[in-house]
Amino acid sequence: MSEQHPKSYNILPGPKMGLVTPDYLEAVAAAARKHNIPLLKLTSAQRIAIGGHTPEAAAAIWQDFGQTEGPKKPVGIHYIQSCPGVQWCKFGRQDSPVLGKKLEALMTIPLPAKAKVGVSGCPMSCCESFVRDLGIFGKKNGWTLVFGGNGGGLPRIGDIIAQDLSDDGVIALAEKCLQHYAANARKLERTARFMERTDLEQFKGAVLGG
């Protein structure tokens, strides 16, 4: 493989939800200079990708960051996006980074296919909550949970499952939605395709207890 192979890339460890520190950015810059990395790119998942390197360079970079190998794609949730939220944005209504951090506990739930999560602090949904497998956005009275969205080649607007939820309430409901999906979806079936063949009211009844 050429040292400048255009299709060779890896996702660096961190940041989560796009949150970075000066120390982290300095470490990324140092690694890029040390290994002559020609491409650093912010991904749609709010992570940093490095491109154009050999497998040996990739392994060395991971060692520089204190890990022995690159990330393995999780069986379930691939990533959680978050906007700055109420603390940092004048339009924010809820604290999306804090909720995003709490939602990381759900990343261990095994799912039939990958899932993406978008947490937006207001209804403008800067993290594209309506086209994420699990989307959440904030209003004055709490969180709204959206399920079954997709922004890929066959896009789908997700379904609103519940509104005006507390942090604990939206996390509990998100877990029920993911577990119901995991128990009833086909192998490799994303949430959008699952919801297309699922009666919405029956789904709500199953996850809301009604």
Describe, in plain words, how this protein is organized in 3D.
The protein has 210 residues and is of the alpha/beta class. It has two domains: 9-64, no CATH class; 77-208, Sulfite Reductase Hemoprotein, domain 1 (2-Layer Sandwich). It is 30% helix and 20% strand. It has helices at residues 22-34, 55-64, 96-103, 167-184, 191-196, 200-208; strands at residues 9-11, 39-42, 48-51, 77-82, 115-120, 134-139, 142-147, 159-165. The strands form two sheets. The chain has a five-stranded mixed sheet with strand order 4-5-6-7-8. Helix 4 packs across helix 6 (200-208). It starts with 8 loop residues before the first strand and ends with a helix.
SSE layout and pairing:
Blueprint lengths: L8 E3 L10 H13 L4 E4 L5 E4 L3 H10 L12 E6 L13 H8 L11 E6 L13 E6 L2 E6 L11 E7 L1 H18 L6 H6 L3 H9 L2
Parallel strand pairs: 4-5, 5-6
Antiparallel strand pairs: 1-3, 2-3, 6-7, 7-8
Helix pairs in contact: 4-6
List keywords for this structure.
2 domains, 5-stranded mixed β-sheet, 3-stranded antiparallel β-sheet, 210 residues, Sulfite Reductase Hemoprotein, domain 1
